Amino acid sequence: MMKKSLLILVVLSLFVSCKKETTTTTETSTTESSTVPTDKDIVDAYTYLYGRYLVIQQENYDINVEKVGYNKIKYNPLGTAQFVNPNLDVAYLEAWIAVDKDHAVILNVPKIEGRYYTAELLDGWGEVIVNINNRNFPKTPYGKFALVLKGTNPTIPADAVKIELPSEKAKMLARVELKGTPDIAQKLQKQFTFTVPDGIKIAPPLTIPEFTPKAPIGGEIFDKVEEVAASYPDVMPKAKEYQDKAIAIEKYRKTDDKAKAHVDEVVKTQAIPGFLAGAKGFGTQKGGWSVSYAAGNFGDDILARDIINYGGLWANRKEEAVYFIGLIDSKNQPLSGDKVYEIRFPKDALPGTAVDAFWSTTLYSVPDYRVVDNKLKRYNLNNVSGLKKNPDGSLSIWLASSLPKGAIESNWLPTPAGKGFSLNFRTYVPKKIVQDGQWFPAPIEEKK
User: Fold this and answer.
1) Using one digit for the tens of pLDDT, what is the confidence trace for 107-139?
2) Of 33, 123, 278, 376, which has the fewest CB atoms closer than 10 Å, so is most exposed?
3) For the whole model, what pTM was predicted?
4) 164 has which bridge partners?
């Protein structure tokens, strides 16, 4: 989870109190433009489209506001904390990739040994296409990777690994672990480069209405369904079913003012509140932590894809990373900077035992999800923070606005006095026990 548009990354902490991870659907009753859709049809179609709109919004922001451009890598400054939901454990780089039937883009990946890295490629719905790293490409973990439009055969270097993209555009988000030596990580970061041929035809981002996390897009999401659906192929197995449903609702909505008002009212009173309620009840909880394992590739779970795109666009597959979100304590009370908390890992369940790469926990203010300024300039703790164990071999992380009595200073994360906060516990290359839901971080316990 990273810097991206302030309009998208605001709500990782919505994953608070859930019962289950999947969304069930029923067959649509909307078959013709003259047929009045059921409320559920409208809610389902809205939920389906919203995930794509969030990606389009981000593309517009990156291209039209930040003026990044296509096929140009943005190397994010190391340690930058002045944006929403920053990850201070890795050197980030990102890009919008654009190819066409006659041209490929070559991604040059440096040789990286002894630290975590990945170049994650994602599609226009926020689904992971592939991760380029030493785990998925053990024989060719570095070198040239030719990114080509699926079904085409442009000229590429003989020594390049060919990777097909489902459409003309893709998003790349790459990470290199800092691992206590940020100067080396930054050097490696800058060695990720593109070789881009001349003449690639690039379509601009779709124009869509403005919306925000607090004010999601309304009934106008049905203004141009066919154009939006055709703008990027969707790997979701039931994609065509949802698209047909949305197209039928668009036709119905355009029949007259009454139909438009009906659809817009259902969106306002059911679809949007239902989405927000679903987000609050999303994931699996234990000890104050909430987690989703439905990131990266979502099957037919339209709600999961919406929530992940809404709260942390460009989320990775669970094989790469699993994120545990903390907004409440072990007794289901909101986290507060006026209280003292301890996260105590038993000596036989230390966080390092759950990962094959590294772990970290970062503390954010709410509702803006920025790091909490403090005298120590300490915003996160991780496997290279020099944490000290307790005499019995356990490991404690302390959360409080001032150093708690008896706490180890090196293990203390300062919290905002008088305000709420949230936590993000990241596990990179999590072991099977994490991916299978058999491991959670130690509970967030209030200490009196």
Assistant:
1) 999 999 999 999 999 999 999 999 999 999 999
2) 376
3) 0.86
4) 148
